Protein backbone atom coordinates (compact mmCIF):
# COMPACT_ATOMS: atom_id res chain seq x y z
CA UNK A 1 0.00 0.00 0.00
CA UNK A 2 1.24 3.47 -0.87
CA UNK A 3 1.81 5.82 2.04
CA UNK A 4 0.65 8.84 0.03
CA UNK A 5 -1.45 8.97 -3.12
CA UNK A 6 -2.24 12.28 -4.82
CA UNK A 7 -4.85 12.22 -7.58
CA UNK A 8 -5.66 15.06 -10.01
CA UNK A 9 -4.90 17.72 -7.42
CA UNK A 10 -5.77 21.32 -8.34
CA UNK A 11 -5.46 24.59 -6.50
CA UNK A 12 -6.56 28.01 -7.73
CA UNK A 13 -5.81 31.46 -6.40
CA UNK A 14 -8.77 33.49 -7.67
CA UNK A 15 -8.55 32.74 -11.42
CA UNK A 16 -4.95 31.53 -11.40
CA UNK A 17 -3.78 27.92 -11.49
CA UNK A 18 -1.10 27.25 -8.87
CA UNK A 19 -1.33 23.43 -9.01
CA UNK A 20 -2.90 22.02 -12.15
CA UNK A 21 -4.02 18.36 -12.23
CA UNK A 22 -1.04 16.81 -10.42
CA UNK A 23 -1.00 13.09 -9.56
CA UNK A 24 1.66 10.86 -8.01
CA UNK A 25 2.17 8.15 -5.40
CA UNK A 26 4.88 7.63 -2.78
CA UNK A 27 5.68 4.27 -1.24
CA UNK A 28 6.65 3.84 2.44
CA UNK A 29 10.33 4.28 3.26
CA UNK A 30 11.22 6.09 0.04
CA UNK A 31 13.00 9.41 -0.43
CA UNK A 32 10.95 11.39 -2.92
CA UNK A 33 12.27 14.47 -4.72
CA UNK A 34 9.82 17.32 -5.38
CA UNK A 35 11.49 19.58 -7.94
CA UNK A 36 10.66 22.65 -9.95
CA UNK A 37 11.72 26.22 -10.69
CA UNK A 38 10.55 29.16 -8.62
CA UNK A 39 6.80 29.58 -8.98
CA UNK A 40 6.25 26.01 -10.19
CA UNK A 41 3.68 25.21 -7.48
CA UNK A 42 5.84 23.21 -5.06
CA UNK A 43 5.02 25.23 -1.94
CA UNK A 44 1.28 25.25 -2.71
CA UNK A 45 1.40 21.47 -3.19
CA UNK A 46 3.24 20.99 0.11
CA UNK A 47 0.68 23.16 1.90
CA UNK A 48 -2.08 20.89 0.64
CA UNK A 49 -0.16 17.80 1.78
CA UNK A 50 0.16 19.30 5.26
CA UNK A 51 -3.44 20.45 5.53
CA UNK A 52 -2.68 24.17 5.43
CA UNK A 53 -4.66 24.53 2.18
CA UNK A 54 -7.61 22.49 0.99
CA UNK A 55 -7.39 21.37 -2.65
CA UNK A 56 -10.06 22.82 -4.94
CA UNK A 57 -10.22 19.56 -6.90
CA UNK A 58 -8.70 16.10 -6.59
CA UNK A 59 -7.94 13.91 -3.61
CA UNK A 60 -5.15 13.00 -1.19
CA UNK A 61 -5.01 9.52 0.33
CA UNK A 62 -2.81 8.99 3.40
CA UNK A 63 -2.14 5.37 4.36
CA UNK A 64 -4.95 4.24 2.09
CA UNK A 65 -7.69 6.55 3.37
CA UNK A 66 -8.74 10.09 2.67
CA UNK A 67 -6.33 12.57 4.23
CA UNK A 68 -7.78 14.21 7.35
CA UNK A 69 -5.58 17.13 8.46
CA UNK A 70 -6.98 17.16 11.99
CA UNK A 71 -6.25 13.47 12.60
CA UNK A 72 -3.20 12.93 10.41
CA UNK A 73 -1.11 16.04 11.04
CA UNK A 74 0.54 14.44 14.09
CA UNK A 75 2.01 11.82 11.74
CA UNK A 76 3.63 14.47 9.55
CA UNK A 77 6.83 16.43 10.16
CA UNK A 78 7.25 19.56 8.03
CA UNK A 79 10.44 21.62 7.81
CA UNK A 80 9.55 24.69 5.72
CA UNK A 81 12.09 26.78 3.86
CA UNK A 82 10.95 29.81 5.87
CA UNK A 83 11.92 29.10 9.47
CA UNK A 84 9.27 29.59 12.14
CA UNK A 85 11.02 29.33 15.52
CA UNK A 86 10.43 31.70 18.42
CA UNK A 87 13.56 33.86 18.59
CA UNK A 88 13.30 34.82 22.28
CA UNK A 89 12.51 31.33 23.55
CA UNK A 90 15.17 29.00 24.94
CA UNK A 91 16.07 26.19 22.54
CA UNK A 92 15.50 23.20 24.82
CA UNK A 93 12.22 24.57 26.14
CA UNK A 94 11.00 25.33 22.61
CA UNK A 95 11.89 21.88 21.24
CA UNK A 96 10.02 20.17 24.10
CA UNK A 97 7.03 22.49 23.65
CA UNK A 98 6.74 21.80 19.91
CA UNK A 99 7.16 18.05 20.48
CA UNK A 100 4.23 18.12 22.90
CA UNK A 101 2.10 19.85 20.28
CA UNK A 102 2.68 16.71 18.20
CA UNK A 103 1.17 14.54 20.95
CA UNK A 104 4.15 13.55 23.11
CA UNK A 105 3.89 13.80 26.90
CA UNK A 106 6.35 16.05 28.71
CA UNK A 107 8.66 13.26 29.92
CA UNK A 108 8.86 11.53 26.50
CA UNK A 109 9.33 14.83 24.69
CA UNK A 110 12.17 15.87 27.02
CA UNK A 111 13.95 12.54 26.66
CA UNK A 112 13.70 12.57 22.86
CA UNK A 113 14.94 16.14 22.66
CA UNK A 114 17.93 15.27 24.86
CA UNK A 115 18.74 12.20 22.72
CA UNK A 116 18.69 14.22 19.50
CA UNK A 117 20.69 17.08 21.05
CA UNK A 118 23.38 14.59 22.11
CA UNK A 119 23.40 12.96 18.66
CA UNK A 120 23.84 16.36 16.97
CA UNK A 121 26.25 17.67 19.66
CA UNK A 122 23.73 20.34 20.69
CA UNK A 123 23.47 19.51 24.41
CA UNK A 124 25.22 22.75 25.43
CA UNK A 125 22.61 24.78 23.51
CA UNK A 126 19.71 23.94 25.85
CA UNK A 127 19.48 27.37 27.48
CA UNK A 128 20.50 29.42 24.44
CA UNK A 129 17.92 31.51 22.62
CA UNK A 130 17.15 30.94 18.95
CA UNK A 131 18.24 34.49 18.12
CA UNK A 132 21.75 33.58 19.33
CA UNK A 133 22.15 30.74 16.80
CA UNK A 134 23.88 30.91 13.44
CA UNK A 135 21.86 29.97 10.38
CA UNK A 136 23.42 26.51 10.29
CA UNK A 137 22.78 25.90 14.00
CA UNK A 138 19.19 27.02 13.53
CA UNK A 139 18.86 24.61 10.63
CA UNK A 140 19.97 21.67 12.78
CA UNK A 141 17.47 22.67 15.48
CA UNK A 142 14.64 22.93 12.96
CA UNK A 143 15.50 19.45 11.59
CA UNK A 144 15.44 17.93 15.09
CA UNK A 145 12.06 19.53 15.85
CA UNK A 146 10.70 18.19 12.55
CA UNK A 147 11.61 14.54 13.12
CA UNK A 148 11.78 13.89 16.86
CA UNK A 149 8.13 12.73 17.15
CA UNK A 150 8.95 9.99 14.58
CA UNK A 151 6.42 10.96 11.89
CA UNK A 152 5.42 8.61 9.08
CA UNK A 153 5.80 11.40 6.51
CA UNK A 154 8.63 13.94 6.68
CA UNK A 155 8.64 16.94 4.33
CA UNK A 156 11.96 18.78 4.06
CA UNK A 157 12.14 22.03 2.10
CA UNK A 158 15.79 23.03 1.43
CA UNK A 159 17.08 21.18 4.54
CA UNK A 160 20.78 21.77 3.73
CA UNK A 161 20.53 25.55 3.43
CA UNK A 162 23.21 27.26 5.52
CA UNK A 163 24.94 24.02 6.55
CA UNK A 164 28.69 23.40 6.20
CA UNK A 165 29.83 20.11 4.59
CA UNK A 166 30.20 18.31 7.95
CA UNK A 167 26.68 19.15 9.12
CA UNK A 168 25.27 18.51 5.65
CA UNK A 169 26.63 14.96 5.85
CA UNK A 170 25.19 14.62 9.36
CA UNK A 171 21.69 15.57 8.16
CA UNK A 172 22.04 13.39 5.05
CA UNK A 173 22.93 10.32 7.11
CA UNK A 174 19.92 10.93 9.36
CA UNK A 175 17.67 11.16 6.29
CA UNK A 176 18.96 7.75 5.20
CA UNK A 177 18.45 6.36 8.72
CA UNK A 178 14.89 7.67 8.96
CA UNK A 179 14.01 6.16 5.57
CA UNK A 180 15.57 2.84 6.58
CA UNK A 181 13.34 2.83 9.68
CA UNK A 182 10.24 3.28 7.54
CA UNK A 183 9.67 7.04 7.38
CA UNK A 184 8.72 8.43 3.98
CA UNK A 185 10.55 11.62 3.03
CA UNK A 186 9.62 14.32 0.56
CA UNK A 187 12.72 16.32 -0.26
CA UNK A 188 12.36 19.67 -2.04
CA UNK A 189 15.45 21.56 -3.19
CA UNK A 190 17.08 23.37 -6.10
CA UNK A 191 20.35 21.48 -5.56
CA UNK A 192 20.14 18.80 -8.24
CA UNK A 193 23.35 17.06 -7.18
CA UNK A 194 21.78 16.41 -3.76
CA UNK A 195 18.63 15.03 -5.36
CA UNK A 196 20.71 12.76 -7.59
CA UNK A 197 22.58 11.41 -4.58
CA UNK A 198 19.72 11.07 -2.10
CA UNK A 199 16.40 10.47 -3.87
CA UNK A 200 14.86 7.24 -5.14
CA UNK A 201 12.07 8.85 -7.16
CA UNK A 202 11.39 12.38 -8.41
CA UNK A 203 8.69 14.52 -9.96
CA UNK A 204 9.30 17.84 -11.70
CA UNK A 205 6.70 20.59 -11.69
CA UNK A 206 6.62 23.54 -14.07
CA UNK A 207 3.86 26.13 -14.36
CA UNK A 208 1.75 24.11 -11.96
CA UNK A 209 1.85 20.91 -14.03
CA UNK A 210 3.79 17.70 -13.53
CA UNK A 211 6.16 17.35 -16.50
CA UNK A 212 8.38 14.51 -15.27
CA UNK A 213 7.85 11.49 -13.02
CA UNK A 214 10.13 8.50 -12.44
CA UNK A 215 13.07 7.00 -10.59
CA UNK A 216 16.35 8.90 -10.83
CA UNK A 217 17.79 6.04 -12.92
CA UNK A 218 14.85 5.86 -15.35
CA UNK A 219 14.78 9.65 -15.83
CA UNK A 220 18.48 9.72 -16.71
CA UNK A 221 18.02 6.81 -19.10
CA UNK A 222 15.08 8.59 -20.72
CA UNK A 223 17.19 11.65 -21.55
CA UNK A 224 20.48 10.01 -22.48
CA UNK A 225 21.97 10.87 -25.89
CA UNK A 226 24.08 7.79 -26.70
CA UNK A 227 27.25 9.57 -25.60
CA UNK A 228 30.26 7.55 -24.47
CA UNK A 229 33.67 8.46 -23.10
CA UNK A 230 36.49 6.30 -24.47
CA UNK A 231 39.84 6.39 -22.72
CA UNK A 232 42.63 5.41 -25.11
CA UNK A 233 46.06 4.18 -24.15
CA UNK A 234 48.83 6.67 -24.93
CA UNK A 235 50.56 6.12 -28.26
CA UNK A 236 53.78 5.25 -26.43
CA UNK A 237 52.13 2.45 -24.43
CA UNK A 238 52.46 -0.53 -26.76
CA UNK A 239 50.93 -3.97 -26.25
CA UNK A 240 51.96 -6.13 -29.18
CA UNK A 241 49.95 -9.11 -27.96
CA UNK A 242 46.64 -7.66 -29.16
CA UNK A 243 47.89 -6.51 -32.57
CA UNK A 244 46.22 -8.29 -35.53
CA UNK A 245 48.10 -11.52 -36.20
CA UNK A 246 48.17 -11.05 -39.98
CA UNK A 247 49.41 -7.51 -39.79
CA UNK A 248 52.92 -6.70 -40.92
CA UNK A 249 52.63 -3.06 -39.91
CA UNK A 250 54.86 -1.70 -37.16
CA UNK A 251 53.55 -2.39 -33.64
CA UNK A 252 52.34 1.10 -32.92
CA UNK A 253 48.96 2.46 -31.99
CA UNK A 254 47.20 5.52 -33.33
CA UNK A 255 46.66 8.49 -31.06
CA UNK A 256 43.29 10.16 -30.56
CA UNK A 257 44.26 12.67 -33.25
CA UNK A 258 44.89 9.88 -35.74
CA UNK A 259 41.36 8.55 -35.23
CA UNK A 260 39.46 11.78 -35.75
CA UNK A 261 37.34 11.68 -38.92
CA UNK A 262 38.29 14.29 -41.48
CA UNK A 263 36.87 15.53 -44.74
CA UNK A 264 36.39 12.96 -47.55
CA UNK A 265 39.70 13.94 -49.12
CA UNK A 266 41.57 13.62 -45.84
CA UNK A 267 43.51 10.72 -44.45
CA UNK A 268 41.11 9.32 -41.79
CA UNK A 269 38.04 7.38 -42.79
CA UNK A 270 34.45 8.52 -42.13
CA UNK A 271 32.41 5.75 -40.50
CA UNK A 272 28.71 4.99 -40.00
CA UNK A 273 29.05 3.78 -36.41
CA UNK A 274 29.65 6.98 -34.45
CA UNK A 275 30.76 10.56 -34.57
CA UNK A 276 33.46 12.02 -32.39
CA UNK A 277 31.99 14.93 -30.47
CA UNK A 278 35.11 16.11 -28.68
CA UNK A 279 38.53 15.05 -27.50
CA UNK A 280 40.84 15.90 -24.64
CA UNK A 281 44.29 14.35 -24.66
CA UNK A 282 43.60 10.62 -25.12
CA UNK A 283 39.94 10.80 -24.13
CA UNK A 284 37.29 10.78 -26.83
CA UNK A 285 33.62 11.65 -26.46
CA UNK A 286 31.68 9.80 -29.14
CA UNK A 287 28.01 9.74 -30.06
CA UNK A 288 26.92 6.31 -31.25
CA UNK A 289 24.51 6.41 -34.16
CA UNK A 290 20.99 4.95 -33.79
CA UNK A 291 20.83 1.17 -34.05
CA UNK A 292 24.59 0.69 -33.52
CA UNK A 293 25.72 -1.60 -30.69
CA UNK A 294 28.50 -0.61 -28.32
CA UNK A 295 30.38 -3.81 -29.22
CA UNK A 296 30.52 -2.62 -32.83
CA UNK A 297 32.20 0.60 -31.73
CA UNK A 298 34.67 -1.28 -29.56
CA UNK A 299 35.48 -3.59 -32.47
CA UNK A 300 36.13 -0.57 -34.70
CA UNK A 301 38.88 0.63 -32.36
CA UNK A 302 40.28 -2.84 -31.66
CA UNK A 303 40.49 -3.65 -35.38
CA UNK A 304 42.76 -0.62 -35.68
CA UNK A 305 45.06 -1.95 -32.97
CA UNK A 306 43.95 0.80 -30.58
CA UNK A 307 44.32 0.09 -26.85
CA UNK A 308 41.31 1.12 -24.77
CA UNK A 309 41.56 1.91 -21.06
CA UNK A 310 37.91 2.68 -20.45
CA UNK A 311 34.55 2.77 -22.19
CA UNK A 312 31.78 4.48 -20.20
CA UNK A 313 28.33 5.75 -21.06
CA UNK A 314 27.75 9.42 -20.28
CA UNK A 315 24.34 9.96 -18.71
CA UNK A 316 22.92 13.46 -18.34
CA UNK A 317 22.88 14.96 -14.86
CA UNK A 318 19.56 15.90 -13.28
CA UNK A 319 20.77 19.49 -13.46
CA UNK A 320 21.11 19.21 -17.26
CA UNK A 321 17.66 17.61 -17.53
CA UNK A 322 16.11 20.25 -15.27
CA UNK A 323 17.53 23.10 -17.36
CA UNK A 324 16.47 21.44 -20.61
CA UNK A 325 12.86 21.08 -19.46
CA UNK A 326 12.27 24.40 -17.70
CA UNK A 327 14.64 26.76 -19.53
CA UNK A 328 12.79 29.86 -20.63
CA UNK A 329 10.22 29.76 -17.82
CA UNK A 330 9.77 33.35 -16.52
CA UNK A 331 11.19 33.98 -13.07
CA UNK A 332 7.76 35.30 -12.07
CA UNK A 333 5.19 33.03 -13.63
CA UNK A 334 2.08 34.45 -15.21
CA UNK A 335 -0.46 31.86 -14.12
CA UNK A 336 -2.79 30.37 -16.71
CA UNK A 337 -6.40 31.43 -16.49
CA UNK A 338 -8.88 28.82 -15.36
CA UNK A 339 -11.70 27.58 -17.55
CA UNK A 340 -13.76 30.67 -18.46
CA UNK A 341 -16.97 28.69 -17.85
CA UNK A 342 -15.82 27.81 -14.36
CA UNK A 343 -16.61 30.15 -11.51
CA UNK A 344 -13.34 31.55 -10.13
CA UNK A 345 -12.38 29.86 -6.88
CA UNK A 346 -10.93 31.91 -4.08
CA UNK A 347 -8.05 30.67 -1.99
CA UNK A 348 -9.30 28.06 0.44
CA UNK A 349 -7.22 27.55 3.53
CA UNK A 350 -7.99 25.73 6.72
CA UNK A 351 -9.66 27.94 9.32
CA UNK A 352 -7.34 28.99 12.12
CA UNK A 353 -9.17 26.63 14.45
CA UNK A 354 -8.16 23.68 12.24
CA UNK A 355 -4.45 24.24 12.85
CA UNK A 356 -2.70 23.01 15.91
CA UNK A 357 -2.80 26.14 18.03
CA UNK A 358 0.26 27.19 20.00
CA UNK A 359 -1.52 27.43 23.32
CA UNK A 360 -0.05 26.65 26.75
CA UNK A 361 0.06 22.96 27.61
CA UNK A 362 -0.52 21.91 31.18
CA UNK A 363 2.20 19.76 32.71
CA UNK A 364 1.44 16.07 32.75
Give your account of this protein's structure.
There is one protein chain. With 364 residues, the chain is α/β, with parallel strands linked by helices. It has two domains: 4-223 and 320-354, P-loop containing nucleotide triphosphate hydrolases (Rossmann fold); 227-314. Helix content is 28%, strand content 24%. It contains eleven helices and 14 strands. The chain has helices spanning 42-49, 69-72, 91-101, 106-119, 135-147, 165-180, 192-198, 216-222, 256-259, 294-303, 318-326, and strands spanning 4-13, 16-26, 31-35, 57-62, 65-66, 76-79, 153-157, 184-188, 201-206, 209-215, 227-232, 274-280, 283-288, 308-314. The strands form three sheets. The protein has a six-stranded mixed beta sheet with strand order 6-7-8-3-9-10. The chain has a four-stranded antiparallel beta sheet with strand order 2-1-4-5, with helices on one face. The two termini are 37 Å apart.
Beta content? 15-25%
The domain count comes to 2
**Uncertain stretches of 5 or more adjacent residues:** 236-251, 262-269, 332-338, 340-364
* Helix proportion: 25-40%
CATH superfamily of the largest domain: P-loop containing nucleotide triphosphate hydrolases
- CATH class of the largest domain, please? Alpha Beta
Assign the structural class, choosing from mainly alpha, mainly beta, alpha/beta, alpha+beta, or little secondary structure: alpha/beta
- Distance separating the two termini: 37 Å
Name of the CATH architecture of the largest domain = 3-Layer(aba) Sandwich
The H/E string reads EEEHEEHEHHHEHEHEEHEHEEHEH
What is the general shape?
Answer: globular
Tell me the total number of β-strands: 14
The major sheet is characterized as: 6 strands, mixed
Q: Which strand order does the major sheet show?
A: 6-7-8-3-9-10
- Rg is 28 Å
Amino acid sequence: MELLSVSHLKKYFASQKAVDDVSFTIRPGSIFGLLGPNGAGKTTLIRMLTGIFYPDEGSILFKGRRFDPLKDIAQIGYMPEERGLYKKMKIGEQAVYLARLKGLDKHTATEKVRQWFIKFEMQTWWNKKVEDLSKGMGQKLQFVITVLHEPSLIILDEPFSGLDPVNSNLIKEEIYNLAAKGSTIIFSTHRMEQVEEICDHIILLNKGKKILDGTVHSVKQQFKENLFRIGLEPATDLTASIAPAASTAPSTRPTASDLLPRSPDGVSEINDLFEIVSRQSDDLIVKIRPGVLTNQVLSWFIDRNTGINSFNEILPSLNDIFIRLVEGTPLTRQFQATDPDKEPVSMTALPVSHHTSHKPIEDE
